[in-house]
Amino acid sequence: MSDPKFSTNALHAGHDVKAHGGTRAVPIYQNTSYVFNDSDHAANLFNLSETGFIYTRLNNPTNDVLEQRLAALEGGIAAVVTASGMSAISTALLTLLRTGDHIVACNSLYGGTYNLLSVTLPRLGITTTFVDASDTANFTNAIQENTRAVFVESLGNPKLDVLDLKAIASVAKAAKIPFIVDNTVATPALLNPIEYGANIVIHALTKYINGNGTALGGAIIDAGTFDYGNGKFPEFTEPSAGYHGLVYHEALGPAAFIAKVRIEGLRDFGGAASPFNSWQIIQGLETLSVRMKHISENALSLAEWLQGRDEVTWVNYPGLKSSKYFKQAQAYLPKGQSGLITFGVKGGFESAKKMADNTKLFSLLANIGDSKSLIIHPASTTHQQLDDAAQESTGVTKDLIRLSVGLEDLEDLKADLETAFATLEK
Ligand SMILES: *Cc1c(COP(=O)(O)O)cnc(C)c1O
Fold this sequence. Notes:
Elements: H1 6-12, H2 39-46, H3 61-74, E1 78-82, H4 85-96, E2 102-106, H5 111-123, E3 127-131, H6 137-142, E4 147-153, H7 165-174, E5 179-182, E6 200-204, E7 218-222, H8 234-237, H9 248-252, H10 256-269, H11 275-286, H12 288-307, E8 312-316, H13 326-332, E9 340-345, H14 348-357, E10 363-364, E11 374-376, H15 388-393, E12 400-404, H16 410-422
The structure holds pyridoxal-5'-phosphate.
């Protein structure tokens, strides 16, 4: 087949049936190590002159299928899967950056990422300037002499801002620094950031890609489009003391980054994916395009319905005509705008908290992207450690409820929210 499309790749890419004993479903290789033919074979594997499996922290046949599949679905040259979304982000950044480097990031980021960039990485001497992504000039103005990465989320959570990836990519390109896009909320079924100039794509596989809330996982996907030989990345152009003098850019060309992620990043930081989790994530990935279509339809209908409720003061969903991101969503997410909705409840903090406490079908928990519908009141839970200014900049207001809409029947979801609304004072 010359150029299979998305759903075909989601089911088949990366799985050579013959190479896996004729298995129609991808098998779990639940092992840590691989027998070498002899010591020369082992030496060849270690010095990269031959490809093959060494140790599951570095590579594993089940993880390998998932990696090839994700690379195909995002249009990258290769991928590495990791233990969680956060390990994908930290491994990618620590592979790229050193003390003294600087990141420019959008200010509506997943809480874990925000903390990594604002608290933990500064301890290692890597700092971040957070900018409001609604104006691309903010990225240009924040870039410094020592900036070595631009980091954004394609569809921010909980702000649900759809970023102008193309414009931000051109800022990063002009500054000769890689553009990293966390595409977790949009998923590759709805958006491919590489088409708009992303150099590295990140996923928390934990969310929609798995879809069942059963396994943590992360992925780093390399577009293979960034020139690490441009003089700004000595880590890639000078002999690596960590890998017997290997000069990544020279030896591996466009695959320099993703190779370093695997052979140094996974080796040294150890955030390897569990093959069992990868296997579960592969089951989810098979149906991703069908689920994202249905989830997006459910979410849009529910958002429209919420707009007509007396208890609701505002609704934010990028698929709504009233959303200030509607135009951008039509351009970047024409196939659907995913499953997250935020809305304000009359009565503010107390009412919103009560609302979240009184649904039954919508489960109160701190995850997104499950096939089961979820609800949370961020101001009293996920974002409670942030002060008012930080809450404001991440788009969390006191009255805000976030829904992660699943695959249940729409009428049941509405009935559940109606029951919760009925508990609020008029
Ligand atoms: C959940 C999430 C992460 C982190 O993923 P984990 O698997 O929980 O570590 C990163 N980015 C986004 C946008 C997320 O939603």
